[in-house]
Amino acid sequence: MLKNVDFNYNLINIYVMTYKVSEEGNVATVYLNGEIDMDVTEKAKEVIMPLIEAKKEVHLNLKDVEYMDSSGISVLIESHQQATENETKVVLKEISKSVLKVIMMAKLEQILNLD
Amino acid sequence: MSFEEVKKFKIESASLKEVRVFAREVFKKSTIFEKHTDDLVLALAEAAQNIVKHGYNNQPTEDEMKIIIKFDNNVLSMELMDKGKPVVPSNIKPRDLDDIKSGGLGTFFIGQIMDEVVFKTTKINWVNHLILTKAF
Asked: Does the interface predicted TM-score (ipTM) exceed 0.95?
């Protein structure tokens, strides 16, 4: 079953973050789009955490994430830790160049599941 | 080439996008910044985020933060001024690399990107005055 949920997060009329979720079997893929900073991390967690709590294997597609700061990285860390506690996993897919650079700066490439 | 750009921002998480837009515009002034723009924008935005998050505990305020981006003698400086909770520089600790937590990550990024991170002790009309510098 394919389920799409679109959410537009408007901020000072500048596009910041949108997402789409598709579920197939036990895998939920969250397509994040735009810029992930402190202003949108709670929303990102609201999308990701329930999927992890439902013991879904969560794929975060980061192809269209143009910017991620330490708050965004904290979402990745917390998601990874929550998934481990729930005996499932979070896999980062199609990581954009700019996000990969920040993940590597944080020296998390060996910790998070990068695909 | 030298320049100085100044802008004030509301202290709220929604301003972080505006800070990034401002910085990206400033760094278009010279191709010297081209390869460094993403890093410099990240460092400035992390410092601005620290003001919102730690200086004001992400609480609503009428205060503003002032940001100055200067380039002179091949040295870039980004200054952030605020009237939030006074920063005690010795209490600022970047993340321990072996500690898989998000706390202190922004400060760690700033340290990785910039050459020098200094809290200026002589301030006029501001409580905190952070100066980030990088030589080109």
From this structure: no
